[in-house]
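Deliverable D4.2, example record:
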Amino acid sequence: MAKSRVSFLCGNCGAVHPKWLGKCPECGGWNTLERFVETPVAGAVGAALGGDGGAARAGAEMPRPRPLPDVSTDAVARIPTGIGELDRVLGGGIVPGSVVLLGGEPGIGKSTLLLQALLSLARADRTALYATSEESPQQIKLRAERLDSATLPDPSRLLLYADSLLDRMLEHAVRLKPSLLAVDSIQLVARHDVDGAPGSVVQLRRCCHDLVSFAKRSGCAVVLVGHVTKDGLLSGPKMLEHMVDVVLSFEGDRHHLHRVVRATKNRFGSTQEVGLFEMTGVGLVEVDDSRLASAQMAEPRPGSATAPTLAGSRVMLAEIQALAASGFLGNAKRKTSGVDASRVGMLVAVLEKHGGLRLADQDIYVASAGGLRLSEPAVDLGVALAIAGAHLRRALPAHAAVVGEISLAGDLRPVRQIEQRVEAVRRRGVRTLLLPAGQLQSAPGISLVPIRRVSDAIDQLLAPAMKSDRS
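Output generated by the structure prediction step:
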């Protein structure tokens, strides 16, 4: 019988050390090491995981190295979740044998999104096992009836199991052979033979390792629901994100309707795609991104600007909002939400130096509507004109949008995929688009206004009488 081994695991970086240390040599964290007892894996679960002696007891053949050209991918077909926005972020669906980690704040809708995907899979004649340690089967059924107005799927396709012991979860998964195993949540499951409470670094590492091994051996896709800390980071060691194949972040304010799901890691697709949802009384509903800015374009107000931004393969119309209020010279505030704060600070300096605006004594607040996070430099012009409009109390024309990167010299730089952006805004009712000079001369159905400097944009989009108001 194999002997248990005691080691110490860092809760910050996941590094393993043979003895306890006050400071982790890898990440420099103090008092982050926890005792970890490694025990052999046995039984039916061990056979599925390929643990010590498991393959021999199950009569399984030991994997052998194969040349890359001999590895066939024909049989690896993605599993569509039936939710278009989620499939877009995943790259077309869940890859069999992959492990997906879905994280988000409490009450944001993680379990709701997961249950909607499982119901859709069950209607597609795929077996799904929903293992939960947070709710009872009765509570899940009540939620499913609320989410779905149609009849529930075949009862043999969506199976509910409430327990907190991972050993028993995996035993049922080995026996039932589902297409997808959902664990809600990874912070509340534990192994009986591992020291530590559920959610501890030791339990998280071992449970995640067992689930990843099960997925790779069986070909069953696994979705893990994860909690986040008060800083918005996934709870547990960083190693948890390294072990899984896909990390999804479910973002938004639970006091508002819009939700955004994005991939921070995806071994099988792009990490640039985003999915948009709206929380309703019947669950999460997919949102057309043009709705996020359509109201602002029809009724423009000072301090608002619409900018086409790329999110993977799609162009989204983002509404940028700004507010300028009287502050104190030398101690003016710069607060942002959904927009890079350092970028906003740079644009404020450019507006002062090259736009003729006095903002040193103004508190500036900038936010993106709908919970979107804007990091592309192409929205620079939208941010700058929103700030200028808020300061000068001038609104952009109706059905107008702006795009362009602003340099420190106040010049507008070209942006990528300008044709795709122009076509997208034209389809969504934009009549006028300000863009960097020299990128595109004309386009059918839309007026293109070339801009060379940020001062030109202020002069053209804001009323000419405004020149005397700059103070």
